[in-house]
Amino acid sequence: MCLSVRHPSSRASSAAGWKRSFPLTVVLVLVAAAATGATHLLRDLDLAPGLVAEITDDASLVLRVEDTGRPLITARPEVTGARRGGRTSTAPFVAKAADGDPGGQRGFAARADDDGDGRVDEDRLDGRDNDGDGQVDEDHAAIGDAMTVVSRSDGVHAEFYHFTPRQLRPTVFVTLAADGPGRTAWQLEAEGDAWVEMEIGDRRHRPSGRPAELTVHTYVTRTSGNSTNREHWVGVSILDDPAGDGVGRAVLDGVVLRVHLGRRPLAVAVSAAPSWSGLVRRLAEARLVRDGVSDPVDGRRAPWIVVPGCAACRREQPPDFRWRFDDKGHLVLLAKIEPGRSGRLDPDLFRLLDHDLGAPDQVVWTPREGATVGVAWSRVTPEAIARRGAAPRSPCLSLEGLSSHDAEGVLSFRFRSPHPALVRRLVDDEPPSELTLALLDGRVAQVKLEFDVSSTDPVRSAFALARNRSGQELLPADQQRLLQAERSRPSLAPALLEGWPNPFRDRISLRFRIPATVGEAFVWEDPDDRPARLDPQAPVPWTRSEPMATVKIYGIDGQELATLHAETVPSGEVTVHWNGTDSFGRKVASGTYFCKLQLDDWTITRRIVFVR
Asked: How many DSSP H helices and E strands does the chain contain?
């Protein structure tokens, strides 16, 4: 049942004190239920799509995959060494609150000192009169958007905090204390790999835009995914050390992590993510929330404040993407990084045409100015971390200059041996494919993935690989892409531009033809450079439906003298004339000149001779 009541363990107080007691909904667990060891769900929290956290009235926390019911970790207080004559029948005190509730103001709020004694948060929410003023729970800190409190009869006190901003939603904060007889530990049992202890590092922007380096002591585990579920990483960070005895209060025993508790509250963050890079970012954000902010005027510090991210980071959008194959048939995704387009991407969470690409084996940053930098990357596992003795940093954070808001360049991700079905769909897909990606700040975005027509890498063998794997002929659209991406680019056929008479005295007629097919349009200096099985009847891949055609006259020194034609033209023939004058109407000297025809990106040049 749900009542607003005073806990039986509270001392008697005045009627006025009773009226001022904190008006929270307190869930009382029946004595009979406590005696049988039954637990009740107090609150479930949505951490991420398909992932929930469950808090029960014995101060247990379970992170669970929603559709399968599979737990990722189970955490509960364990008391040993206490001399008790049997199981206690005293019901625990449990309550719910939220930041800003009456009686629970905190931080820099005007009502943070609810009882007006000059101190804040000295009467915690546990159903007791901690500050001895005759009133109960009137001056505590209500932390987060969903705060849940469990105060057990054996002296264990646990407070669970949850914040709803995107970067904090996958994290549950817990403060724990124990003042009863015996030794108390918070025991976290993993359902996957053994726990690994490490220091993780992260780089982010402060609200001012200045970069900040963060280091967090962490224990991590991972549950492997299957055909229907992604893997999950879980991290536990001890955010403060009130006893001053360092991180030795935590003990690892395979899949069991025990965090020893004392009288002073210990703050812990428990976070989950579908990738290693995402977990690192979430635990770094947890560190910032625990530290809170300081008043720049009087220096007062308020913990448990959500620090807003850099404004420029919040406005940034995902970059535009292109794709290609390299000469070994490996898939390469290229992100165009520019101001307003973020390069802080999670390298493990690319999903293309319903296929998880997995971890790339290499990430390369090619800035607009400066040297190209590459980082080797692979799928991160707890075993690999343990062997290395250090935690890897996401390449999108370690590449110099990439985190700047002014960064410009190309960020490429190479994936070895893509799945044949994915290759076939990439080659055949019209319109462009859709790529799902994750930014390190937790956002998920979908972008169109265009073929990299400007690539200078040899892609001919990759398309042959795609054709062989699919068992299909290349479609006309594929042949157009192949022609545009060819390293040894063709030239326009010489027959497309003719001039007569040549030499000429008064006027030369220049006739050019707009070809309709690839066979009409192009020739290769070396016939062996022509792509295999290129269809001569395929349409010419103009930028638009009709090409931009320009005809210009140049001197032997390369100086442009006159423009005779510049407009889009459909297939067919066009004739223009030149009377031996420049763009200002002045007669040029006798000699050799060049007429250049350009159709989109392709050109052909003819030599002409003017005789006066």
From this structure: 10, 37
